[in-house]
Automatic annotation (TrEMBL):
Protein species of origin: Mesorhizobium denitrificans
Occurrences of domain MmgE/PrpD N-terminal (ranges): 8-248
GO MF annotation list: lyase activity
Record protein name field: MmgE/PrpD family protein
Start and end residues of each MmgE/PrpD C-terminal domain: 268-430
Family: Belongs to the PrpD family.
InterPro entries: MmgE/PrpD_sf, MmgE/PrpD_sf_1, MmgE/PrpD_sf_2, MmgE_PrpD, MmgE_PrpD_C, MmgE_PrpD_N
Amino acid sequence: MSETAVTQQLAAWTVGMKFKDIPASVRAEGVRTFVNWLGCAVGGSDHETVDRALAVALLFTGPKRASVIGRKERLDELHAALINGISSHVLDYDDTHLKTIVHPAGPVASALLAVAEERGIRGKDFITALIAGVEVECRIANSVYPDHYDRGWHITGTAGVFGAAAAVGKLLKLNKQQMTWAFGLAATQSSGLREMFGTMTKSFHPGRAAQNGAMAAFLAKANYDSSERGIEAPRGFANVLSTKQDYNEILGKLGEVWEAGLNTYKPYACGIVIHPTIDGCQQLKEKLGSRVKQIKSVELTTHPLVLELTGKRTPRTGLEGKFSVYHSAATALLRGDGSPTAFTDEAVRNKAIIALRDKVNAKADASVHEDAVHITVTFEDGAVEKLHVEHAIGSLHKPLSDEAITEKFTRQSDPILGEKATRKLIDTAWKVADLGDVGIVARASRKK
């Protein structure tokens, strides 16, 4: 393996990968990834963040060939990729590659469906491109994580642009040289700051990664060149944006070990590191019943990353609430809720939730796994209840079933598209790999 030709070798693999090369289990995970992404894109489509972004996109759109998921509007492919990437991530309900906290589908699927809609793309080719994009994205993320993330980069945006370029490049049938250029073009557009968490701009990152990655592929198709070492060069992506560069994570056992097969799906609409706390607090609500109103204090012992990412003590908006382990614990204990309704402006300003939130304390312990939490509840009468969550629902140890993903999709889509249209869309999405034209999925996702 040559560390001076990482970009070229990755490009060669991406171009050469075929549907038959993908293990059946990874293909199935690719379909699950797509279905979960689509449900989240519909679910987030009526958020005010999307309203504002779409109003701007409509000022500049080119030919309206691509659907805006969950809406009536159509845009050009690049702006549709942007808006659908925003809507799929705005609720923080999307998929997660747990090794890097990347949300793979936002950049990849948002770009891919927008480009595929009017091109008569077969389902098998679509899923091949989707899996190629997710694999590229996650492997590049692996190569720089955690140092890159610790420096303040939002890895979904920074690695996601490569995934979108790979996926769209597959659809456009780029050759090795063109795919190499596409990765260079992606590298120079890699961006996204963790400072934006808790604001509308966080969801802009996967949207922009989708848009920029697609643009990289289109430019490369036109033989617009770039550095052929965009990832590994001394002034390339990995060396400029990270103190860690492990290129074996990109090329090692490529096509043998599949990161795309390790995707997970959120049962709760917030930062993934809060999920053990919500899981445990929901269990305690079921057990305690009305005694929840007699709680004196709640003590959480969590991995340090939980407080680093979600330590907002007094969230002011629903989006900020998604990054407050304190709000999440209180809402789960009082309402048993971790869905999007737990993270609205109303919820973070609710007096009862605030009163309980103020009784929640959290401390970091590096010996606690990121997927675990210790919860100690003390009552006014001095009684104590303890619970340890070893692995949260939705983790690799407790993955969501296909039925659970369908139920999650239904809860998000029914209020927006209606029950009949939702059922048709779900059924079509699960069959995506067998479709003769995946454009029917995009068209079925639009509000009539």
